[in-house]
Amino acid sequence: MFRFSAGPVSTGNNSAIQVVAVSCLVFLCMISAGCGGSASPFVKGLVSQQKNKFEQTLRSTISLPDSLPDAIVGRLYSAVLEPQGSHAPYHFLLLAGELPDGLSMDSSNGRISGRPLVPGDYELLIRVASKRERAQGLGHVKLQVAKTNSAQTLAVHISPTSLTLTSGGSQQFTASVTHATNNSVVWSASAGAISGTGLYVAPTVTANTNATVTVTSVQDSSKSAVAKVLITPAAITPPAVLTLNTTTLPNATVGANYGAQLSASGGVAPYAWHVVGGSLPQGISLDSASGALSGSPASAGSFSFAAQVSDSSSQSSQQQLTLTVQSNVVNNSCGPPTYSCARTDLNPAPLPSKVPDAGNLLGMNRITTDPDFNSRIVRITDASLNTGIRNLTFEAGFGGSADANVWNTDSSLLYVQDVYGWMYPLSFDASAMQVSRLYAQSFPQWGGMRISAGGSWSRSDPNVLYSFETRTPSISRYDFTDRSSPPQPSSLVDFSSAANCLPLGFKPIWRGIGGVSRGDTVFVAAYSNTGTQGSGVYVAAYKIGSGCTVYNTQTGSVSGNWGSTGIVNTPDRYTIHNVKISKDGNWVVIVGTTCFSTNCDGPYFWQIGTTNVVTCQQGCSGHWTEGNLTWVNNNGSPKIGQYQKRPFSNASLMQTVITNLPSTLQIPFDQHPSWNNADDNDSNPFLTSTYKSTTSTWAPWYNEILAISPSAGTVSRFAHTFATVASHRFSTKYAIGSVSQDGRFFVFSSDWMGTLGSESGSSTCTVGTDCRGDAFVVELK
């Protein structure tokens, strides 16, 4: 039927007459058989008659063409109504009739365009008005839409049309469809597999096999194209010669956890490993499936044995190996836990007039000796560590935290971090003090493996690294036992999907790494889904075999599927700055940022799995670290440089640590302690790097690496940090570092007095603006 347009008909003295005339037209259409498509002669006559009367009444002076160019279904169409008898600009209005589905009219220029979908004969009553001359007219316009041009039949084409593939090979096919309104296609294959984009994978065959690949039009399923494929068997290649590659083994220590990986190449996996001659040390075993040596040796000595690897093609290879087990009391006078060879005096040690040469942009694995402390220091990164992005600054640990557990249990692996947050796991030869990238052949674009997450090494397995992911509230596990093939992450826990944990679908914006407990039994992290550091309110703990428990610091509620639930015993409500787990896995240290309640003291010690929160209220400022049972912090009271210690269970039982402080220390004097080497009783010394901005009077401990005994109160001095203390990188400025779990090494960040080149690749730099920083390891004796 005709449709009445609600738009304005015109203006002037004849507006009432126009409305009556249009209403008559609408009425005539309503009682007719319809004005769209092919109208009846009766209606056509009436429309023509009313059109003539209408034009005479409105003093019409503009005429329109009687017909438009024909259109074809599915083809793009564009035609313009060209008025005669007046001048632009015009306004066009469809008064009656219907445009074909798929077409529309521009009221400002009379252009009818689109892609018609339905064939037929269409009659349109169109009004045109000249805005400038107040002239107008009606046009009875015809438009015919024909079916698809039969001379342009839809066709499907495929390329290539024939080919030969080897068994299991692949080929990308392409298809095109002509003279169609829908170019979509469907792929199929008589043998093998083909994707929705035309990627064909041939089947595995033992004899020549014919196959076809067919592509079919979605618009017309009767139209298709076929390609022929001849598939030939793959040539049988004999397996490469099996070779046991390992020729040397790292030394072991009596009573210490040991881990080493035998490697092989060639042959046909899986491999089987055996000792076929000699014997391993008591307490050490060889895994027959993986080739891993592990255990804890019981006695010292050199143990020779013949290792054999065999494969599924009946090949075998042997290698004579020697495992040296060192006594755990090789030198009672040096090293952990007493560090008897280190300086303990309180004499100032200004920087030497000539800084030890650690190289410039390059210098990885260069060993120097601090002339004031006689300690060996090795540079473990340089501008070439990441071969894809050169000249980066590298730091010890992550996020400016000295509490990061960046060393494995036996100091054979550690990681560093670049300024973009990527972890770089490194292999470390403790005796030679040399590092190497892991899996360089698998990641040539970066020079070795890197991981986009923050991490913590296992406290029980020397080959395991846990990564705290950034985009999901989850923890993954990497096993570095196989040093030839890079490990794939396996999921340990997802706090958003674990029962009674974070809300389902939780998307973190910020996460704080709480770390891993002794024995790898408890894992802790803090999260925010509303903002960056300082906005989080969730502390989540996962206990192996028990599940999740969560403390919401804003509501004070504890929930989970193990331990106690309910409201904590402190009224303080706050957001989270950072968190750290005690080494025994029973407590979490929480430092707040924004207070929601009347008062917020802190830090807070949450007893995991309970509603018990111990508040530290006196002498709790300064940087801190945690052992199994004890929390220490350098609040500088009653003197600069002093530490306090207290048990997690009773924060009011505070004791000073250091017995003999230098009298010449001046503020600002800062320290960032690390206690990854804490023993069960928290008697082992914790390590710290110190910070002192430029001063005219040099005092002991300024910009040094120290070990502080929480039981004896003594301070051991190991090295200068050689930091300018003016770097634009936080960890480099404060020489932040981390002690190894066995207490033998300390890795720290430094710009080495601005001698390491610039972040743009120049050999010179401007301190505080663009000087590079690297990670260094000092041997603790």
Give your account of this protein's structure:
With 781 residues, the protein is mainly beta. Among the domains are: 15-146, Sandwich (Immunoglobulin-like), CATH 2.60.40.10; 155-232, Immunoglobulin-like (Sandwich); 243-326, Immunoglobulins (Immunoglobulin-like), CATH 2.60.40.10; 495-615, no CATH class; 624-720, no CATH class. Helices cover 5% and strands 37% of the residues. The strands form 15 sheets. It has a six-stranded antiparallel β-sheet, with no helix packed on it. It has a five-stranded antiparallel β-sheet with strand order 26-27-56-55-54. A four-stranded mixed β-sheet has the order 1-7-6-3. Strand 39 (547-552) and strand 40 (557-560) form a beta hairpin.
Give descriptors for this structure.
disordered N terminus; Immunoglobulin-like; mainly beta; 781 residues; 37% strand; six-stranded antiparallel β-sheet; extended
Short structural summary:
The chain has 781 residues and is mostly beta strands. Helices cover 5% and strands 37% of the residues.
What fraction of residues sit in β-strands?
A: 35-45%
Per CATH, the class of one domain reads Mainly Beta
End-to-end Cα distance, whole Å, is: 99 Å
In this structure, how is the largest beta sheet organized?
6 strands, antiparallel
The CATH homologous superfamily of one domain corresponds to Immunoglobulins
Structure annotation, total helices = 3
CATH topology of one domain: Immunoglobulin-like
Q: Categorize the overall geometry.
A: extended
Q: Taking strands numbered 1, 2, ... along the chain, how are they ordered across the largest sheet?
A: 36-37-38-39-40-41
Helix content: under 10%
In terms of per-residue confidence, which ranges show pLDDT below 50 for 5 or more consecutive residues? 1-43, 54-59
Q: What is the count of β-strands?
A: 56
